[in-house]
Amino acid sequence: MLAIDVKDLRKQFKVQKNREGLSGALKDLFKREYRELTAVKDISFQIPQGEICGYIGENGAGKSTTIKMLTGILVPTSGDIRVNGYIPYKDREKFVNGIGVVFGQRSQLWWDIGVIESFQLLRKVYRVSEPDFRKRLNELVERLHLGDLLNRPVRKLSLGQRMRCELVASLLHNPSILFLDEPTIGLDIVVKTEIRDFLMQMNKEQGTTILLTTHDLQDIEALCSRVIMLDDGRIIYDGGLDELKNRWSKGREIQFQFASHTTLDRLRQLTATLDVSWTAESDVTARMWLPHAVNVSDALACVVGGTEIRDIKIFETNTDDIVRSIYSSGSASTSKETVVS
Amino acid sequence: MRYASLFWEYIKNYAKTRLTYRSDFWIEVLSDLLYQGMNLIFILIVFQHTPSLGGWSEAEVVFVYGFFMIPYGVFSTFFSIWNFSERYIVKGEMDRVLTRPAHSLYQVLLENVDPPSLIGSLVGAIIMAISWAQLGLPFHLLDIAMVLLLVISAVLIYAGLYTALSAISFYSDAPTGIVPLMYNIQNYGRYPVNIYNKMIRFMLTWLLPFAFVGVIPASYFLAKKTDDLSQLALITPVMGVVVFTLGLLLWNHGVKRYRGAGS
pTM (2 decimals)? Predict the structure, then answer.
């Protein structure tokens, strides 16, 4: 069964145009001009149950808007959404019983009361029975090491502690789908790892479907079997992370350290049969760039045969670089030819 | 039933957070009472200059004021959502409310519940009782039921109007100017409406029916006047249901237009 089924989803906002200066402001007072801003442009995707899917894109690409439509906060302008079999904004109160939501930038908990009291309140809101609640809470508290935090008021928690509490709060009613909007924003590496491990384990044991937006690609690498990439309101990539790397990374680099001075001409001559390029770093070190089409072993074989090598390092283009290059290339236009699946 | 237990839970949390700031609690009660006291003194000063106001005696106007304070106190307890637009729309806290399985208005109200205002109701009831004795009005057991019915209806009218008012925030960017305006208009409803000109009277009776919160239901208990307001008194429950339903409909429709804040 599909956990999330989205078809031709679109969201338009009416945005007021502010004219410049005082005279502009005065004019706005009497006659406002609006323009339509389309935040999400007819996107379609499906997420089966039990999948962890990363939803990435630049700021303003439409990620949060999509999440808000999927969680029933916003009503779409057009298109169909089915989440857990519900149309989110229509049966909102019934629908939200089956989902958990964490917004990294905004607290779900009550600021002034103790964490445990917030949880108790949520228990009532979600109608979780006392024994179920206890069992679930103990489990979550143990896993996220919250034991001694429960009696402190939320405002006195550090960001990392708060975020773990937010996670617990969103999971008390045992939702089958979890929406995370930048769950690791501003957290240190230890907490990040802890949260990732926790999500991974929960997904494995209970089959919770997770959709998360993030700017930290390590979240994606650690968690997601699938990535949906959004640019300017359109999906420009939907598929596995490895595939994304293969498709977008142009190649890899090998750094050689030679025993003696080796000229670039000499190296180019050695690899003349292959489609590679060389750059010198010093007298004894040089970098070879090779596209995916060329085998590393072939390339190495050519070089090894003609020179004496001290050391070799292979640099895989990392995801950050790939994504940066996609973002900055304005790929929405290029993607039409290359990525349409 | 579930909403009732939720209500209790929120009140408990209110108590926990607010009672830790004890002085704050008493200052709020005091400032509330001072405000109401000022209004009462204003009425007394007016009657230093004239024996009657549009055919209403001092004791009668004070009676009306006493009655008004009861629904007003109840209303202030459950509908202190003056900052709705700023907190929930501009700052986007509505996001959180909408991801929880209870009616959005109910959640917003509970998060802002303000029990100290109930003391105003108590004071109002005392003022009303004293005036009742002063005026030498007859007293039947049925009157208690009628007071309850009329108070509930008046609260519904208030609730409906302010729900509608808050719901405007879903449609307009910054409706900040409307709330103080309404706040002023509502004050007119405590005085005998026949002292106003026809247009204001019509508005207070049928458009923004604040007259139904104070003077009209209160007149049910008072001696009959020439232009008999007490005839309208029994419509108060109908007005209450209609106004509240309209307010709720506007809210429910407005929620669908919520746009969220930022990204």
Answer: 0.83
Query: Which residues of B fall within a CB distance of 8 Å from A73?
Result: 94-95, 98-99, 258, 260
Is B262 within a domain? no
**Exposure of B241 by Cβ count < 10 A (0-12 exposed, 13-18 middle, 19+ buried)?**
middle
CATH 3.30.70.1150 maps onto chain A at 250-316
Rounded distance between C-alpha atoms, residue A294 and residue B248, angstroms? 67
Q: What is the DSSP letter of A54?
A: E
Q: Do A106 and B9 touch (CB under 8 A)?
A: no
Tally the domains of chain B.
1
Please list, in sequence order, all residues whose beta carbon lies within 8 angstroms of the beta carbon of residue A249, skipping any fewer than 6 positions away. A292, A316, A317, A321, A322
pLDDT at A332 over 80: no
Please tell me which of the candidates A16, A101, A124 has its beta carbon nearest to residue B5.
A124
A16 with B257: Cβ contact below 8 A:
no
Q: Where in chain A is the domain with CATH 3.40.50.300?
A: 50-246
What's the ipTM?
Answer: 0.80
Q: Do B100 and A75 touch (CB under 8 A)?
A: no
Provide the β-strand partners of residue B52.
Answer: B57
Q: Residue B32 domain-assigned?
A: yes
Report the CATH architecture of A250-316: 2-Layer Sandwich (3.30)
| Range of the structural domain that residue B109 is part of | 2-255
Q: For position A331, what pLDDT does the model report?
A: 56
- Note the pLDDT tens digit of each residue in B19-50: 777 788 888 888 888 988 888 898 889 888 88
Asked whether residue B195 carries a pLDDT value surpassing 90, the answer given is: no
Residues in chain A within 8 Å Cβ distance of B93: 106
The yes or no reply on domain A50-246 and CATH 3.40.50.300 is yes
